[in-house]
């Protein structure tokens, strides 16, 4: 039976594709307060600002491509059972070819009803104040905002608990509950953390090897190592 690899990714894996990370000098939130563009309160206060913000993100996403980091993870599927759990709302893992991708924080290329959250639509255009669900209610970005539940968290935890190998790539591990997945991985599982600022990240986790590298070099290197082992 194939060994199970679970990969947790954050904004860092898409940085070299041209999508800014959230925290740090050029963080995405610069110029925008998080509570204005990524919270239910912000949506109530100024819906147009929120729509504009995500419309811009969606347009940018459609102009960029997956990088060598996303692509290397696909290679692992030849010898391992791989699940990618991503905090990213982009579709770069899917476009690279990953088969199993769980989006913890939603998806930029989907819109959903403000009345019934089970009404979700594929969406590649701007969302405007004219766009309504089939029941006639305004559509919003299919994004988990601050203060909202993370509906896929339980699934993500159950998957992580079964990992033989757990790989974390490009996340500051500052946002919960996503960051707690590191602690759901079995203590005996091998863990790798790839991040150019890996020094600053928590290391009170058993069997964790930190690799201080960017995604486009660190991920292909690790994948080569893991592929040579089976
Ligand atoms: P952050 O912006 O908090 O962290 C990005 C991480 O990527 C940092 O640790 C960087 O050191 C690292 N990084 C930067 N460049 C990199 C590269 N080329 N290769 C690898 N790593 C690199 O982003 P997240 O941890 O993903 O939530 O943020 C978590 C959540 O906070 C996001 O999903 C988003 C945000 O609020 C929602 O939108 C709901």
Model description:
With 230 residues, the chain is α/β, with parallel strands linked by helices. It folds into two domains: 1-19 and 66-105 and 150-230, 3-Layer(aba) Sandwich (Rossmann fold); 20-63 and 108-143, SIR2/SIRT2 'Small Domain', CATH 3.30.1600. 30% of the residues lie in helices and 20% in strands. The strands form two sheets. The chain has a six-stranded parallel β-sheet, with helices on both faces. The longest helix has 15 residues, at 47-61. It starts with a strand and ends with a helix. The mean pLDDT is 94. Bound molecules: 2'-O-acetyl adenosine-5-diphosphoribose. 2'-O-acetyl adenosine-5-diphosphoribose binds at residues 10-12, 15-16, 21-23, 38, 87, 105, 144, 170-172, 174-175, 195-197, 214-215.
Helices and strands, in order, run as EHHHHHEHEEEEHEHEEH
Q: Give the name of the CATH architecture of the largest domain.
A: 3-Layer(aba) Sandwich
How many DSSP E strands? 9
What fraction, in percent, of the residue positions are helical?
25-40%
Task: Note the total helix count.
Answer: 9
Give, in spatial order, the strands making up the sheet with the most strands: 3-2-1-7-8-9
CATH class label of the largest domain: Alpha Beta
Q: Roughly what fraction of the amino acids lie in strands?
A: 15-25%
Q: Radius of gyration, rounded?
A: 18 Å
Number of domains: 2
The unreliable regions are none
The name CATH uses for the topology of the largest domain is Rossmann fold
Helical/strand content category: alpha/beta
Summarize model confidence as the mean pLDDT.
94
Largest sheet: 6 strands, parallel
Bound molecules: 2'-O-acetyl adenosine-5-diphosphoribose
CATH homologous group name of the largest domain: TPP-binding domain
Globular, elongated, flat, extended or rod-shaped: what is the shape?
elongated
CA-CA gap between termini = 12 Å
